[in-house]
Amino acid sequence: MNLPACPSCSSAYTYEMGALLVCPECAHEWSVDEAVAPDELAGAVVKDAFGTVLTDGDTVTVVKDLKVKGQSLSIKVGTKVRNIRLVDGVGDHDIDCKVPGFGPMQLKSSVVKKA
C-alpha cells in the first residue's frame, strides 16, 4: 500500500495507526481524509501587496523599510529582488530570495510589489 508523504515535513516514512496517518520524523498526525496531494499544495496563489499574482522567477521591489534581525542595517524601500522562489516558509514568509547586500532570506509577499 502506498501512503502519502507527511504534509508537514514531506517525509516518505509515514505509517497508519488506526484511522490516522503518522510521521515518525516530525510526529505529525493527520487523518486519511485530510491527506492533500502535493499538486494541490502547489496550486496556492501568492499575491503581492497590491494584489498582483506572483510566480517563481519574478522580480519584486520592497515597498517598506524592513529591519533585519541581527544587523544594524535595514532593507530600504525600492530595493529590487530578482529571481524569487515561492515557498511555504516560516510563518507567513512565502518568498525565498537573495536580497542584494544582505544575502539569502525569506520575505512576506505583503511587503513587496511585482516589478
UniProtKB/TrEMBL annotation:
Pfam families: YjdM, Zn_Ribbon_YjdM. Residues 3-31 form the Protein YjdM N-terminal domain. Residues 46-115 form the Protein YjdM C-terminal domain. It comes from the Bacteria. PANTHER family: PROTEIN YJDM, PROTEIN YJDM-RELATED. Belongs to the YjdM family. This is Alkylphosphonate utilization protein. It comes from Aeromicrobium fastidiosum.
